[in-house]
Amino acid sequence: MTKRGREKHKKAPLVEKVNSPADLKKIPIKDLSRLAEEIRDVIINTVSCTGGHLATNLGVVELTIALHYVLDSPKDKIVWDVGHQTYAHKILTGRKDQINTIRQTNGISGFPKKEESPHDHFTVGHASTSISQALGLAVARDLRGGDEHIVAVCGDGSLTGGLCYEGLNNLGHMKTRMTIILNDNEMAISKSSGAMSNYLNKIIKRYQFLKEFL
What we know:
Elements: H1 3-10, H2 21-24, H3 32-50, H4 55-58, H5 61-70, E1 77-80, H6 87-95, H7 130-143, E2 150-155, H8 162-174, E3 179-183, H9 195-211
Parallel strand pairs: 1-2, 2-3
Helix pairs in contact: 7-8
């Protein structure tokens, strides 16, 4: 074994140290890419045995780490629209040792589930609901004078549901403070179509163009 190989072998897995978002914050930023690799390994090993959603979860690892690194969950609330993208979220919020039971009888759910964790604020699948749900949490926060952050993670496919537009419409009217993250992995079962898809593609192209010159 080479020296580099021995050094890598000696390093204890970072993912074993993370049982909560508080533990995650103790990891230096420079090591987060290594943690992301380890989480991907856990997901791949798990899904190869249990089945489940592989690509969607591999694509959201860095986003999940970033959210839990900068937010104070569960005080700050992350509402997931694409519920089957929460495997990394479950690993980082105290369910790492149960991840091998995901989608199994008496195991943890493949989607957010309130009964499992205070970090899951709704029991939800994939139904274009995150913006409306997050808006409700934001309004409740404002009524009681709270200061927590509310974040809706909305998949690009979720923007095809009418409830999503109702949430956006009400949010624009109420002008309360919350964050919407559009998680577009540029992949779909079939070719994307429709006015919203075309509009988002134009925005992305403009962003990429400007990014090259900034």
